[in-house]
Design a protein that fits this description.
The structure is a homodimer of 301-residue chains. Chain A is α/β, with parallel strands linked by helices and 301 residues long. The first copy, chain A, contains 10 helices and 14 strands. Chain A folds into 2 domains: 98 residues, Nucleotidyltransferase, domain 5 (2-Layer Sandwich); 180 residues, 2-keto-3-deoxy-galactonokinase, C-terminal domain (Nucleotidyltransferase, domain 5, 2-Layer Sandwich), CATH 3.30.420. The first copy, chain A, is globular. At the A-B interface, strand 12, helix 3, helix 6 and helix 7 of A face strand 12, helix 3, helix 6 and helix 7 of B.
């Protein structure tokens, strides 16, 4: 029995491509591949998408709504940024050039902030998804990931935001720095994480001096790898919370992202007296693409 | 005319091997190769050294004095750490196992600190070299590099020290993070460096939020690569200075390292009202190996 979507939702990041065959807000089927933006030339996007859609019956014509790095300068077509304050899908869609006459590909705009300079691409769709379920939300969204975003939202608009490279720095330190010797292995240490968050928040200026201590404690005191890794994570997340204090202090906070990661942020925020609610990043992306599709239909009418 | 050293000085780091043919304190010849510790199995050290010494006439027997990662756990032979407070060559030499009867290889000890846990291996030799010229020094040595050391020295002893991974993190961010797009290229911007140091020192807790701004300013405002790179360096060195404030504040400071790097640290410290004197790292290593050789002869008598 063939899948006959009425439109296609696509989440196209740096290292992944995910597509959903949709009928209105209903998911009929899904597919994914490793053909992320970073792996493709400009001419490679359409074939990569067609490969993924091949099992589905798209009829004579179908709308594709795509978010993420597919809209970056190195992506399929550069989508503009809406400038804050703005609604998360505020800048209109960008049409990607296609050869196959059955396809219309609409890329979701990013969001930018002039001062301090900042950009997002992909998270705006998760924010739109969240707001489609919580129109009245007035508070802060934290979207942890490679580049964690802290986003002040009010009256259905993004007011301001701030990016921390915490995830990328954690990855570089654990995979490629001298600390890789100290943090290799499985397991986790909740208490070490919590202590490191507190420690880092109370003296964030000492971070530069604390990281190498993980290596030294490994050499001198056989510090367990799971403790070292949890402490490294806590030091970095603590430093991020210190930098983001104006965002979360005294505000309602919701977390959007991968469950393992939002759990860490919730624990760290909880120690600061902030009760953050967690939302799955994948679900918010799909909800945001559904909101984007609804907006596309509105615009077309 | 053949080179006939009376002893051999060796600086053997993670990625390099340098040897000097010595007569007392006089350098007769030098040689170097890429056979760093990281490139060698335990059995590979002696052949790598013999290759380098081949052009020299070492006679029936020669003492080799070596410092650096050659004494690490993954090195030729693990040399112990002296615990602070101690003189920089305080733990005695470790003999490396050799097959060639002409060689006696003496590895310089490292230095450790229990609380906060910290270690050094290689820098103790530079400190010994510095102290051989400045016995009366009472102040702080800063040795910038992959892992920068801040060292409190008094009465010819290392009192305490602190390591910052600034150089390694700068390298990872410029070569492997998303910032690589923003900092690629030649050139430098002194004013951007100075501003970033000041900025980072005055609000070190904001570091996590500032790094991604370099990327965003590149995308939105075409920030020049030389400005972005200088600003990145300034943000990290500023954060390090904030963490090392108890070391440099109100103390005499001397810098030991590569000239381009000590120049940056001198500029950053100068903006804090600290006039630091610079010393070449290579010269201090040789002076330290000469001091170590003198100590070896003393011990042997």
């Amino acid at each position: 029995m063939s899948v006959r979507p009425t439109w296609i939702a696509v989440d196209w990041g740096t290292t992944h491509l995910r597509a959903w065959a949709m009928d209105g807000a209903k998911v009929l089927a899904k597919a994914s591949s490793e053909s992320g933006m970073a792996a493709l030339d400009r001419d490679g996007f359409e074939p990569a998408l067609l490969d993924l859609l091949a099992p589905w019956d798209v009829g004579d014509h179908i709308n594709v709504v795509a978010c993420g790095m597919v809209g970056a300068r190195q992506g399929w077509a550069e989508a503009p940024y809406a400038a804050v304050p703005c609604t998360p899908l505020g800048a209109g869609f960008t049409q990607a050039p296609v050869r196959d006459p059955r396809l219309s590909v609409h890329i979701v705009p990013g969001v930018k902030q002039d001062r301090p300079a900042d950009v997002m691409r992909g998270e705006e769709t998760q924010i739109a998804g969240f707001l489609s379920q919580r129109k009245d939300f007035d508070g802060v969204l934290c979207l942890p990931g490679t580049h964690t975003k802290w986003v002040h939202v009010s009256a259905e608009e993004i007011v301001s935001f701030q990016t921390a490279m915490t995830g990328e720095i954690f990855g570089l330190l654990t995979d490629r720095s001298v600390l890789r010797h100290s943090v290799a292995g499985e397991g986790w240490d909740d208490a070490a994480f919590a202590d490191a968050v507190t420690d880092s928040m109370s003296r964030p200026e000492a971070l530069a001096a604390r990281l190498f201590g993980l290596r030294a404690e490994g050499l001198l005191n056989d510090l367990a790898a799971q403790t070292a890794r949890a402490r490294l994570s806590g030091l970095l997340i603590g430093a991020e919370l210190a930098a983001a204090r104006p965002y979360w202090l005294g505000r309602e906070v919701a977390l959007i992202g991968a469950p393992a990661l939002t759990a860490l942020y919730r624990a760290a925020l909880s120690a600061q007296g902030v009760a953050a609610v967690r939302h799955d990043g994948g679900e918010m992306t799909r909800a945001g693409l559904i909101a984007a599709h609804a907006k596309l239909k509105e615009t077309a009418q």
